[in-house]
Design goal:
This protein is α/β, with parallel strands linked by helices and 318 residues long. The chain has two domains: 198 residues, Spore Coat Polysaccharide Biosynthesis Protein SpsA, Chain A (Alpha-Beta Complex); 110 residues, no CATH class. It contains eleven helices and ten strands. A hairpin with a 2-residue loop joins strand 7 and strand 8. Helix 5 packs across helix 11, helix 9 packs antiparallel against helix 10 and helix 10 packs across helix 11.
Length: 318
C-alpha cells in the first residue's frame, strides 16, 4: 500500500516565488496526498496565488495565521495535516520533479526511519549568487556512495510521531529553529536516513541588501537561542585578532596591517578552494567572495548590536 504523505509549507509575503514552488509540486512524479500551507500574515498576493491552485489536481489547503515565525507556522501545518508522513519544504524553493518520490524511497524500500533528509543545491543563475553560495552554502559530504548536502529542513520528511515526541519546532526564533529541531530528533534517538537523489533548488539572497538583512536577523535570533558557539565566537575571535594587528600597526609597524590583509585573503582562498576550486584563478570572483564574506561578518555584528540594544532597553523599562 502506498504511504500517504502531507506536504507542509510555511509562507509569508512570497508572491514572487510561490508560483514556482507550486508549479514544481504539481509536476512531481509522486504527488503529495495533500499540501498544507500556513500563511503567517502575508500582506501581498501570496494567499490569492495559492488559492488559485485549489482547482489543480492536488488538494492545497491554506491556513491563515497571525504573523508568526517559521517554526510555529510549520507546527500549525503539521498539526492540521491528515497523514502521518510529513514532507517539508519552504517558499523560495523549486522541487526537482523526482523529489518526493526519492524522499519516500527509503521508507517504502526499508521502512522504519523517523526522518529522511534529502539534498539541496543553491541557485547559481547570477554571478552574485554564485559568489554568495561560496560564502555560506556548505560543501557536499559523502553519504554512502553519493555526495549530498543534508540536514536541510526544506528538503526533508518526518513522521508526525517523531515531530510530536520532541515537542515540535521551537516557535520563538526566526533562525536556528530548524537546527534545534533536528538536534532534538537526533538526541531522542529517532532513526535517521538519507535520500541523496531527492533534491531541491534553493534561491538564495539575490542582492547585498537582502543578504545583509537576512544574516543580521539570523545573528539576532541565534543569540536569542543561545547558539553563539558555531558562528559568533569564531568570527569574533578573528576580528579581535585583527583589532590587535591594527593596534600594533599603528603603534609599532605598518607591516601588521599587511597581516590583516593576508588573513582576509587566506580565509577567502580557503572558502573558494573548498567550494569552487576553479574560482581561485578568477580575480573578480575572488574579490566578490571576500566582499560578501566581510558583509556577512558585519551583518553578524549588527545582529549582536541589535540584540544588545534591545536587552538594554528592556532593562531600562523595568
Amino acid at each position: 500500500m502506498k504511504n500517504k504523505v502531507s506536504l507542509i509549507i510555511p509562507v509569508r509575503d512570497e508572491e514572487s516565488s510561490i508560483s514556482e514552488l507550486l508549479d514544481s509540486i504539481m509536476a512531481q512524479t509522486r504527488l503529495p496526498d495533500e499540501v498544507v500551507i500556513t500563511d503567517a500574515g502575508s500582506k501581498d498576493a501570496t494567499v490569492r496565488i495559492i488559492e488559485a491552485y485549489n482547482v489543480k489536481r492536488c488538494p492545497v489547503r491554506i491556513i491563515k495565521a497571525e504573523p508568526v515565525y517559521p517554526g510555529k507556522a510549520r507546527n500549525i501545518a503539521i498539526e492540521a495535516s491528515s497523514h502521518d508522513l510529513i514532507a517539508m519544504t519552504d517558499a523560495g524553493i523549486r522541487l526537482d520533479r523526482l523529489w518526493l518520490e526519492k524522499l519516500l524511497d527509503p521508507l517504502e524500500q526499508m521502512g522504519g526511519a523517523d526522518i529522511v533528509y534529502g539534498s539541496y543545491e543553491p541557485r547559481r543563475d547570477t554571478f552574485f549568487k554564485r559568489c554568495a553560495s561560496i560564502v555560506f552554502v556548505p560543501s557536499h559530504r559523502s553519504v554512502g556512495a553519493k555526495n549530498m548536502r543534508s540536514h536541510f529542513i526544506a528538503s526533508s520528511l518526518v513522521r508526525k510521531e517523531a515531530w510530536r515526541s520532541v515537542g515540535g519546532f521551537p516557535e520563538n526564533f526566526r533562525a536556528a529553529e530548524d537546527k534545534i529541531f533536528m538536534e532534538s530528533i537526533e538526541r531522542k534517538g529517532c532513526k535517521i536516513t538519507f535520500a541523496p537523489d531527492a533534491f531541491v533548488i534553493w534561491d538564495i539572497s539575490s542582492n547585498p541588501v537582502r543578504l545583509f538583512k537576512r544574516f543580521a536577523s539570523y545573528s539576532y535570533h541565534d543569540i536569542k537561542a543561545a547558539r553563539m558557539a558555531e558562528w559568533h565566537y569564531p568570527v569574533a575571535r578573528m576580528y579581535a585578532a585583527g583589532a590587535l594587528m591594527a593596534l600594533l600597526g599603528t603603534a609599532v609597524s605598518g607591516w601588521f596591517f599587511g597581516l590583516i590583509f593576508l588573513g582576509i585573503m587566506g580565509r577567502t582562498f580557503g572558502l573558494i578552494w573548498e567550494r569552487d576550486k576553479r574560482g581561485v584563478v578568477n580575480p573578480a570572483k575572488f574579490v566578490m567572495v571576500a566582499t560578501l564574506m566581510v558583509l556577512v561578518d558585519i551583518a553578524m555584528f549588527a545582529g549582536m548590536a541589535g540584540y544588545a540594544a534591545e536587552k538594554l532597553m528592556r532593562k531600562r523599562c523595568i
